[in-house]
Amino acid sequence: MEAAKIIEIESDKHYIFKSERLGFRDWKDTDLGKLAEINADPEVMKFFPATQSREQTKIFIDRMSLQFKEKGFCYFAVDRLDTLEFTGFIGLSVQTFEADFNPCIDVGWRLKQSAWNKGFATEGAKKCLDYAFNHLKLKKINAMAPKANLPSINVMKKLGMKEVRTFDHPLLLNDARLRECILYETPGNLS
């Protein structure tokens, strides 16, 4: 059997849904080391207060798996379909930090550097919004990023999300570079 056919058969087994180039799935134990490597990359974590340890990464994966079981969505583990290579995460998550717009559901992403500038974040987030509105029947999705995070803000704009306002993120108040964030919103169905 051709290698491409084997990859296709294997990939169909465990994806919740797929976009053109990405497969979205629940987390596996084998993802820990790969995501920990991404979370330890200072360039990937440039718009976060710090890199994350392996233990912090495990807590995140456990929280996402539990959220998926309870709500049917999370920041999904994402593989490239052409190689089945773990690339990072893209998905939906409940945000509960103290703010007048929370709790809300946001769309977010974190990809390894080799996956940057290829349109994966936009493609994946668009598919997650489609899943949110058409499968989960959610009414509104938010996204947020520090004002300094222009790459993520550009993705939000490409998604057709509208800027709602700026706010000081309560978990980033001690970080002058990241404190001021922008809240975006996508009401209704994008398709």
Automatic annotation (TrEMBL):
Pfam families on file: Acetyltransf_3 (PF13302)
Domain N-acetyltransferase: 22-180
The organism's place on the tree of life at top rank: Bacteria
UniProt name for this protein: RimJ/RimL family protein N-acetyltransferase
Keyword flag Nucleotide-binding: no
GO MF annotations in UniProt: acyltransferase activity, transferring groups other than amino-acyl groups
Organism in which the protein naturally occurs: Pedobacter cryoconitis
The keyword Transferase is assigned to this record: yes
UniProt-listed InterPro entries: Acyl_CoA_acyltransferase, GNAT_dom, N-acetyltransferase
The entry's keywords: Transferase
